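Give me structure tokens for this 179-residue protein.
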Amino acid sequence: TATAAAAAAAAAAFAAAAASTSPPSFAPTAHADAAADAGAALPTESLADRVRGLRGRFLASLRRNEVAPALEQIPRREFMVDTELDAQLVDEGRARVGRLVDAVHLDNLHAALLTHRVRIETWDEMETQLVSVTAFDPPAPPKADAVHNFPIRREAPGDVRRLACVAFLRRVERCERML
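Here you go.
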């Protein structure tokens, strides 16, 4: 039938493509052994040509993968050749992220501590905190569109007594000057 013939033709084409993309053999040849025995260096151009050929086939495989249907595409990570380097880079990246997270966490803790200390010294110590009332419909420019109260600091009991003593001494001093 026609479908069987088409399937056989596709299988033959696939086998031919697989044969043409099979990795080259790097096993030493008789020619290389003879050249090594003769003391001559192996030709580096042939090795460079092999590397260029491998690179070309690899890039061609990547291009074929990009144009392949979505269900037939191989994930880009599967093309990774040096898996040890990939694992090392991933580990280094994770360690770097961990250090950055720790540094940001410390910076945030420092800012939170400073905020807490400032709040205790200023906001929490106030008897009345600052409040602003803003108009919904602002008046003409020379008039104010907001009214602010003045925050009043809560006085400690020791400060009240000290202030009373200073005020009394000041009154005594003024009375002495009058005499």
